[in-house]
Amino acid sequence: MNTIDWLKKLISFNTISSKSNLELIAEINNWLSTNHIPSTLTYDDTKTKANLFATIPAKNNSLNEGIILSGHTDVVPVEGQSWETDPFTAIITNDRLYGRGASDMKGFIAVVLALLPEFCQLSLTKPLHLCFSYDEEVGCLGAPKMIAAMQKQGISPAACIVGEPSEMKAVIAHKGINVFRCRIHGLATHSSLTPQGCNAIEYAAQFIDWIKQYATQLKKAEQDPFYDVAHTTITTNMISGGTALNIIPSYCEFYFEFRNLPCINAKTIIDKIKLYAENELTPQMQKNTPSAYITIESIGSVPAHEIHQNAAIIQRVQRIINDSSIRKVSYATEAGLFQQANIPTLICGPGSIEQAHRANEYIELSQLTSAEDFLRKLVQTIC
Question: What is the C-alpha separation between 108 and 106, in angstroms, rounded?
Fold first, then answer.
């Protein structure tokens, strides 16, 4: 099958993160088997989702060095969006292919699979590794297991390309994402007896205001003009609490996230937030209500990523795409996880991030063609 056929096939699998991706993985695995390429699957705890790792070996059968081509198989939900067509039935109109995941990021996977027979015919001096993960969209949950399994096999790739939509431009860095749930436990009472209660919503509001002030401090601390948002950000994005209009609320919870520049230590940020909750806000609550308390729970995190501008993989990719511009992005990818595993990694893939997660998501057919040309040259250059 060619790239478009593969993309249509991949889009037909509803791999929203809340669903299984096993049918899609089985389809890819069958294709690998047809081309005599063995693969390794690593599963989530429910065994309903799997990562796939495979290697086209070098002619000396070495599994080390070479390059990884990485993509995630899950997509974001379509509920609440106004799609003009079935999001899981790809259609082509005006040189654009529409469907959920067309840009983010089944387009890249389709290119890799379509080129697989060509790669297998090459006399490789270094191996070509394929990494297809689950649950990237909900916190990059799958990739760590796949990377750990790869390391356990003693495989040490020399570089990695994460094919997130970048319009076939090289992205060398992205921010980290850290998401937390804060729970405020106060004491309920009738609102006519306000002093006898501990208003969890009001203390949550005080906490949120402090977080906002801290975000202002971070904005002034470090900046990097290569990002569209040049500083670390912290935002409170969801909140709930209260049971009735005439009851002092005993419980309130809110979710906050911060997106840190690579030069900002994520642990330093959350430690300071927890310190405020423990040393300042909790004592205020317990002054009149000893049973009051606060919990802060990590919901998910994705490490920031940055590769040195002089890394060999960057030099090679920039020569292939004939573009030496420096690009950094505020969204996160699995690149930081590969980088943490000491694998020099950059982002370069077909499609635009502006199409990601939207209704009527599409990819320009010309982007798929560019990706094919890029991967052919990359594999021939490195492997």
Answer: 5
What distance in Å separates the CA atoms of residue 343 and residue 130, rounded to the nearest whole number? Answer: 14
pLDDT at 277: 98
* 306 φψ region: left (φ > 0), alpha (ψ -120 to 50), beta (else): beta
Extract the tokens encoding 83: 């799609």
Report the distance separating Cα 109 and Cα 101, nearest Å: 10
In Å, how far are 8, 76, 126, 136, 344 from 358, measured between CA atoms?
18, 9, 39, 17, 31
Q: How many CB atoms lie within 10 A of CB 239?
A: 15
The predicted pLDDT at position 233 comes to 96
Q: Are 96 and 353 in contact (CB under 8 A)?
A: no
Contacts of 267 (CB under 8 A, 6+ apart): none
What's residue 205's pLDDT? 98
Summarised one tens digit per residue, pLDDT across range 192-209 is 999 999 999 999 999 999
Contacts of residue 27, Cβ cutoff 8 Å, sequence gap at least 6: 9, 10, 13
CB distance 338 to 75 below 8 Å? no
DSSP state of 214: H
Q: Of 377, 302, 311, nearest to 336 (Cα)?
A: 302
Instruction: Provide the CB-side half-sphere exposure for 378 (13 A, CA).
Output: 32
Region of 86 on the Ramachandran plot (φ > 0 left; ψ -120 to 50 alpha; else beta): beta
Taking residues 6-17, what's their average pLDDT?
97
> Of all helices (H) and strands (E), which one includes residue 293?
strand 293-302
- The predicted model scores a pTM of 0.90
Distance CA(232)–CA(226), nearest Å, equals 13
Size of the chain, expressed as the number of residues it contains: 383
Please tell me the distance from the alpha carbon of residue 334 to that of residue 302, in angstroms, as a whole number: 8
Beta strands (DSSP E) in 25-149 are 39-43, 50-56, 67-72, 91-93, 96-98, 128-133
Q: How confident is the model at residue 74 (pLDDT cuts 50, 70, 90)?
A: very high
Task: Report the DSSP pairing between strands 67-72 and 128-133.
Answer: parallel
Burial class (CB in 10 A: 0-12, 13-18, 19+), 297: exposed
- Residue 290 CA to chain centroid, in angstroms? 41
**Kind of pairing between the strands at 247-248 and 189-190:** antiparallel
The bridge status of strand 173-174 relative to strand 251-260 is unpaired
pLDDT of residue 345: 96
